[in-house]
Specification:
Blueprint: H1 14-37, H2 69-104, H3 107-122, H4 125-135, H5 141-168, H6 171-178, H7 183-219, H8 231-238, H9 247-274, H10 276-280
Helix pairs in contact: 1-2, 1-9, 2-3, 2-5, 2-7, 2-9, 3-5, 4-5, 4-7, 5-7, 7-8, 7-9, 8-9
């Protein structure tokens, strides 16, 4: 009597996942960089008729004011990259610092910081960002970046705390302390290099989350103000003409989804490449 063991569905090779993410993200990076030196039309210029369809002159048509949609998409790529990089940088600076301090803190202070981080993580990132933006005088791109960075810092801090605590119990940390190494030197030489691979994967995921959150803020009128052509603002402006000119909503939606998927694939590929247990499997 023979038994048959059902095998799990085949997973795409990690190199394929990584390359797919690199290609999608690379296209947006190239578009954002190109927008710094060249644009088909002026961003605010009414260069055509209202709600024109795709043509050789306007590749994906025009919006309800006669502005070129492809030009706005290019600027949207630039804004998405600036927001993602800026929010992740702020979140990493605050989160890694708090996480390292919590790992070295006494038990009662560590427990207090851990409870505070858990409470902050329980709140949706978008809600925290909305509160921070609303507390500022006027909505702007930089206020959105700072708000998202603060909102993402709690997740980074919690992960950093967990990873740093795992490293602190290792024998080489004890040996370094016995040899007289200072705590800043231990952090710089032993802790950060060991937790950085895992943190880098998390930063990639936070990047995608920040881009989606900024689009949501812009859709609600709390993001980059005009004439910044954020994808979220494009979606908000196109919602009234979605039936007569659907490309105005489809184009920024596809751009947002493709960047988010690309970043997640990139993070997944990096995790498979960094984690030795996944490489073995």
């Amino acid at each position: 009597m023979s038994t048959t063991i059902a095998s799990a569905p085949a997973r795409p090779p990690r190199s394929l996942i990584l390359w797919a993410g690199l290609i999608l993200v690379g296209l947006h990076v190239a578009t954002g960089l190109l927008s710094l030196v060249w644009l088909p039309y002026e961003p605010t210029g009414m260069v055509g008729m209202r709600l024109e369809g795709p043509s050789l002159v306007h590749w994906i048509g025009t919006d309800r004011l006669g502005r070129d949609l492809f030009t706005q998409l290019m600027i949207g790529s630039r804004i998405a990259l600036v927001v993602g990089i800026g929010a992740v940088a702020i979140g990493a600076a605050i989160g890694v610092t708090l996480g390292i301090l919590a790992a070295f803190a006494s038990k009662w202070l560590d427990d207090a910081l851990a409870a505070t981080l858990d409470i902050l993580i329980a709140f949706p990132t978008l809600l925290i960002a909305m509160l921070v933006v609303a507390a500022s005088d006027t909505a702007s791109l930089w206020s959105a970046i700072v708000a998202l960075g603060i909102a993402l810092s709690a997740i980074v801090a919690r992960l950093t705390r967990i990873l740093a605590k795992r490293v602190l119990v290792m024998d080489y940390i004890t040996a370094a302390r016995t040899s007289g190494s200072s705590w800043p030197k231990i952090v710089a030489i032993h802790i950060l290099p060991n937790i950085w691979p895992t943190l880098s994967v998390n930063f990639a995921l936070q990047f995608g989350l920040a881009v989606i959150a900024e689009a949501s803020l812009s859709y609600l009128g709390l993001g980059a103000p005009p004439p910044n052509a954020s994808w979220g603002r494009m979606l908000q402006e196109a919602q009234g003409t979605v039936y007569t000119a659907p490309l105005g909503a489809i184009a920024p939606g596809l751009a947002l989804v493709s960047l988010a998927i690309g970043v997640n694939l990139l993070a997944d590929g990096l995790r498979d490449s960094i984690d030795p247990t996944r490489r073995a499997r």
